[in-house]
Design a protein that fits this description.
By secondary structure, the chain is an alpha/beta fold. The protein has helices spanning 34-39, 62-71, 103-111, 129-149, 182-185, 190-205, 227-233, 252-265, 281-287, 300-308, 332-338, 346-354; strands spanning 24-25, 53-57, 76-81, 95-96, 113-118, 154-158, 211-216, 218-220, 236-240, 246-247, 249-251, 269-273, 279-280, 291-295.
Length: 357
């Protein structure tokens, strides 16, 4: 630590009132046994038998848990969570620490990461605008500065297809060269656009970081708690009169495989991640066992007021345009580059939600 002393591991269920300058470690960092150390030589970076340690952010999330489970078979993984303090964390979380505090650098200094898989982002519905910006944009900028300072060799960044924005003028199939128009169309996802712009700048300015930016379609499946997954889990879900846009979904296990594949094969760039199949929104609701609740679609202000009146069933405002206009992304570049094909079908994915009803 900065005072030359090592912080003691935080007890399970540490209070949220603990100092923000303290690295809240849920469990002590995993150490290899003597037998493991003899069996597996220390890693020397990308391409070696053991590739050193990998930092995974957002480690409490369902996607991160799947990614870490896949990585642990071959790599040493350290999971960090920065999105708040809670009583209990899954075993995938080793540290709870704010990226913008000094102790975060101690995590880098202690472990010597060779790669970062950045999966954590505070969504619009989870916090205030200022806190989201501080964590998502300012915190990620510091993460990248530390990556440069400590010689990290590769960064995988999770973005979202929402950066393209939902608009009637969108092409029928959106590739990676299409502009990110969401910042002009919906203020709620400005943070996501700024976050990706930050990674894009570093992608070209610092090629030594080997940055890959992944823009997945709707991630869904067991454990996922994003807005679209909550919609599919509800007995009642809203839809707009006269609109049923096509949508794409990828199973959380397939997305975890995509993240690990992009890490292991290391082809820097920007990639959409999506299967070839898609489904109309209203058909997806029916296949997921949801009862459709039709709401007026015009004028837009009336549609938003009607959605808000649903209370706990209401989606965030920014999703309303995604219930009107299709945003179908072309995932062929990722599929070709990384030889990737989803293992879970769309029918299987939606059947999971039907089984929850």
């Amino acid at each position: 630590m900065s005072d030359g002393k090592r912080k003691q591991p935080a007890r399970r269920g540490a209070s949220a009132a603990a100092s923000s300058e303290t690295v809240r470690r849920k469990t002590p960092a995993r150490r290899r046994t003597e037998a493991e150390a003899q069996a597996r030589p220390a890693g020397n970076g990308i391409g070696s038998e053991t590739r050193g340690k990998v930092l995974v952010t957002g480690a409490a999330g369902a996607l991160a848990q799947h990614v870490i489970a896949l990585l642990r078979e071959h790599y040493d993984v350290v999971g960090v969570e920065f999105r708040g303090v809670q009583a209990e964390y899954p075993d995938t979380v080793d540290y709870v620490v704010d990226f913008n505090t000094r102790p975060f650098e101690d995590v880098f200094r202690e472990h010597g990461f060779m790669a970062i898989i950045h999966l954590g982002r505070i969504r619009f519905t989870q916090s205030t605008r200022n806190r989201r910006y501080s964590a998502n944009v300012v915190g990620t900028a510091r993460l990248l500065r530390l990556a440069l300072k400590y010689g990290v060799e590769q960064v995988i960044a999770l973005s979202t297809y929402h950066v393209y924005g939902a608009d009637a003028r969108n092409p029928s199939l959106i590739d990676e060269e299409y502009p990110m128009r969401a910042a002009n169309l919906m203020r709620e996802v400005v943070d996501a656009v700024e976050l990706e712009n930050l990674f894009n700048i570093h992608l070209y300015k610092h090629p030594e970081l080997n940055i890959s930016i992944l823009r997945p379609c709707n991630i869904a499946g067991p454990g996922i708690n994003n807005e679209i997954s909550r919609m599919l889990s509800q007995p009642v879900a809203p839809c707009l009169f006269g609109f049923s846009p096509l949508m794409q979904f990828i199973h959380v296990e397939d997305m975890a495989r995509a993240v690990v594949r992009s890490f292991e094969r290391n082809h820097p760039g920007v990639y959409n991640v999506a299967p070839d199949d898609y489904v109309a929104y209203q058909d997806a609701l029916q296949q997921a066992g949801c009862r459709r609740l039709f709401l007026p679609s015009v004028p837009p202000a009336l549609a938003r007021r009607a959605v808000r009146a649903l209370g706990r069933y209401a989606p965030p405002d920014y999703l309303i345009d995604f219930f009107k206009y299709a945003v179908i992304i072309d995932g062929s570049l990722f599929a070709r580059t990384f030889d990737f094909e989803p293992e879970h079908s769309l029918t299987e994915l939606l059947s999971h939600y039907r089984g929850l009803k």
